[in-house]
Known about the structure:
The structure holds two protein chains of two kinds.
Chain A: H1 3-8, H2 42-52, H3 58-65, H4 69-77, H5 120-139, H6 146-156, H7 161-164, H8 167-179, H9 185-193, H10 196-201, H11 215-224, H12 239-248, E1 252-255, E2 260-263, E3 273-274, E4 283-284, H13 292-304, H14 309-322, H15 329-345, H16 350-358, H17 361-364, H18 376-386, H19 398-414, H20 446-458, E5 462-464, E6 467-469, H21 473-479, H22 486-497, H23 504-515, H24 523-534, H25 539-558
Antiparallel strand pairs in A: 1-2, 3-4, 5-6
Helix pairs in contact in A: 2-3, 5-8, 5-19, 11-12, 14-15, 15-16, 20-25, 22-23, 23-25, 24-25
Chain B: H1 3-9, E1 19-20, E2 23-29, H2 32-39, E3 47-54, E4 63-65, H3 69-75, E5 87-88, E6 93-95, H4 100-107, E7 111-118, H5 126-135, H6 147-155, E8 171-176, H7 216-231, H8 235-244, H9 256-269, E9 276-282, H10 300-321, E10 328-333, E11 354-359, E12 367-368, E13 388-389, H11 390-400, H12 406-413, E14 441-444, E15 451-458, E16 461-469, E17 474-483, E18 486-493, E19 500-508, E20 511-519
Parallel strand pairs in B: 3-9, 3-10, 7-12, 7-13, 8-9
Antiparallel strand pairs in B: 1-2, 2-8, 4-6, 5-6, 7-11, 10-11, 14-15, 15-18, 16-17, 16-19, 19-20
Helix pairs in contact in B: 2-6, 4-10, 6-12, 8-9, 9-10, 11-12
Amino acid sequence: MDRRDFLTAGKTKKAAPVNPIAFASPTRTLSGINPYTGPWTVNEVIHLLKRTMFGAKKADVDFFAAMSMNQAVDALLNVPLAQFTPAPPIKNYANSVDPADPDNAIAAGQTWVNINTNDGSVDSNRTNAYRNWWIGQMVNQNRNILEKMTLFWHNHFATETDSIGRAIWCYQNNTVLRKNALGNFKQFVKEMTTNTGMLRYQNGYLNTNTAPDENYGRELQELFVVGKGADNATQGYAEADVKAAAKVLTGWQINGNTNTAVFTSSRHDATNKQFSAFYNNTVITGRTGATAGDLELNDLLTMLLSINDPSLHICRKLYRWFVYYEIDAATEANVIAPLAQIFRTNNYEIKPVLEALLKSEHFFDVLNQGCLIKSPVDILVGTCREFGVVFPDATTDYVGAYNMWLILNQLSFTFQQYIGDPPNVAGWPAYYQQPQFYEIWINSDTFPKRNQFTDVMLTSGFTRSGKKIVIDPTIFAKSLPNPGDPNALISDSVTYLFRLPLLQASKDQLKRDVLLGGQTSDFYWTNAWTAWIANPNDTVNANIVKTKLKDLYMYLLKLAEYQLA
Amino acid sequence: MKRRDFLRSSVPAVVLPTVINGFSVKAFGSESPLAQLLNGSTPNDHVLVIVQLSGGNDGLNTVIPIDTYSNYFNARSNIAIPQNKILQLTAKTGLNPAMTGMKALYDEGKLSVVQAAGYPAPNFSHFRATDIWMSASDSNQVIVNGWAGRFLNYEYPNFPVGYPNNTMPDPLGIQIGSTTSLTFQGPSVSMGMSISNPTNFYNLLSGIEDPAPNNNAGKELKYIRLVAKQTSAYTTVVKAAADAVTQQAPYPTPNPLADQLKIVARLIKGGLKTKIYQVNYGSFDTHSLQTTTTDPTAGSHATLLKNVSDAIKAFQDDLKFLQIEDRVMGMTFSEFGRRIKSNSSTGTDHGAAAPMFLFGKNVVSKIWGDNPAIPANVNVNDNIPMQYDFRSVYASMMEHWLCVKNADLQQIMLKDFQNLALVKNPDCVIIPPTTAGTSYLEIWGTPFTQSTTIKYKTDGGHTLLQIFDTMGRLISTPVDKDLPAGSYSYDYNSGALPAGVYYARLQNGPMQQVKAMIKVR
């Protein structure tokens, strides 16, 4: 489906209300990508982790704080090979009513990604299982950047499950995102171009020599590789380049039985493709035969990557994902351009760019800390991770685990970041829509829902089919160095949960009103905590401690500060 | 939809802390708690203001027994208020000399005292005792919601879904002065729904706010705060109500409680339909230097009491000035009183029962109950036994001031409590007190060595006879059943109880009496 169709078609997703108020941007920093040599304290570790993972869990902070900054970034970037291919989503749904449906041969709890179904409701269940599985990957993320990068690339190579229309292809698309998340960009685009999900989503499978479909050829340039300049509005390529690229990409189809992309030479346009001056008047030689599609695609990507625009485009997107949305002239010159140079110099390997960015003085610049508004997924998954919310073990209770992940999925939908279904091929507007960018996440609809989420998590939790996810605030409090001291408890909570300090007066007020129940002596909290620790089974003690902690965190998590990373 | 239909699917409400003039403000939404309350009862525009004196107020130096002054003095000679300084309310009872404002209110017929309010088996932890007072639970019972919250939830069970609305455009309840209070917490787990957030009322009335740094983080922080303020269902109405009142009677300053009550008066006059307000002042945790070592009428407790008294007097005067005096009743509570015997640090330690104050133009102005009995020889752990269960005061306030039906009350208060005609309120039916001049409880034989006879009378219906020790612990409950009207006796065998003072407490309908009995070797 064409992106423009989406824009006009009656979308069921609720459009984010636009808040017209925008504050003038304060002065930006001039720092660049020179290696950061400043302090490496808990503050910097938390900054790094909140940006590169979902939430900065106390145990993770401790883990990375034991390293040097360089070691920490290296550890985040060097993902063990096996982690790129997690166990696939499984069957957590009922058999088809059609006794002949092949899905019925799959045992409950076994994966469905290799066996087709002819039943639409089964496929719908699979898509939900896939979405839940993905949330599960994030909730259970390893100590590295992979999940944040997988989501980054989903936002970049955006596809929608309801357009792809087959859960297996959605899953296959996801495997391409993860496998290449830290790999080579050219190889990534190559695999994405011939991915079943993308072929279906961008109509590549309909693109033939007799009926060229320009959809993917356009987005490849406009969104996926080349971009439209620093202002996201300057189209350098010509319309003819869209047509020429489409011709290069003719002949690809999907084999629905094997769920693989196949190239059919007879559907391929074998003529030479002439590109504009923007691409130095490149001509891609038309080819025939089984390898024509691959060879011409390679030529096309080589040509696209021969100019500087793609490296700048990708680096800007990475910047907006990891640092801040505003890219002024200084940032463009001091950060984006040198990162793009690194990208090109390293043959479009992604990791060196991330390494340079995440180790840079610009990344750790205090002016770039705390200014990123958490995405819905960041709030949902990050809150669960930071508070150590216990999920059912997927290996022993996959039903329970998938149900709990489903809860987060449903919330991500109402928070307007439905994983697997960004609004359109451009991804979520928070990462490109001027001038609001991230601020789009926060509006009169979503902000109360975010507060409601943390409130419910701290009280009843969310329940489904007898299983529950709920914040036990004692888990977080216990992870802090000195929770029996009400001053340290609040201070450390603020340190780990927020990126901005609170006034001492505010902390004192919170301490008195919440932890001390209006009293002035710290030992009342200390006594309550100590009594509970000594006798955790005492209901009264437990209730006192848990209620006060619950109230404390309900308050803190409703502060605007909690929305920032 | 019928109210009870809501109950199963009810979504709970939540509390949102925020700040006015540096005070946290929690708005509790609901339209129906009171609206429906009013559907089920007589419509009225009555407001209840709860004043929490946190820390455990020393009742004996607040409401001072004149008739047993020598025992009082003996028990706490280092902090005892000199008899000639006591502000006399009646021949038997007076107030701390710092409380001239409340003395004046009493003289105006706008103040009453409920002596020795407490509950069986008192808890001496601030946190636990506060929870008991706010949840209205039994001592051995953990209830994770508050009595006012249950009240609001019962009447507006679907809150916050559909609120605010035309019937109830305003918060159901507002708390000033604390970020959290169990009082308003609703009963269901689903009560965890936010209707607002901490930033809502920042700067509303020149409150404080954590600064936003002048960088991108500060820019985004300001943006989120703006959305938060725009989003709050109640910011606009609360601010409009506050802005609508430009002139108030004078309040003392500096006086943190007066600051809070001034806001309450402003919001009531400004037109909010909010039914319940709670303010908080403290700390009354006067373990040491409760008075100065040289002057028992000076010191931290005197300052606290003066502020309470001055603030409530000013509030009452303001209500009159604002012509809303008919609509408002107030009551104070503290999580416990303090020990009868003072300690050597010129202070008092955590105790049990203590007086509550009720104030307002419509209060039945009197002193409920007797002065606490103070033994001639007080042990360090001796406590004042309860005369009134504090939950009777809550229940009676709801019934007589907020006009809640008795049948509903039992569900809100979780059991049946003594009915006290605390309020002159033509809108609600008042059951007149029936105890005047009649002795319902006699101990036949005290002191006693092993057994004694407790003679008691009942007017019929539920009759409760309890035995407490001086720590307030419930020793036994000899009678807890419906009885025909008449006189009865009970032979009490003290078993292995140590020698000492014990109390028998009889409760029958609106009546309760307490008598001491002394076991000797």
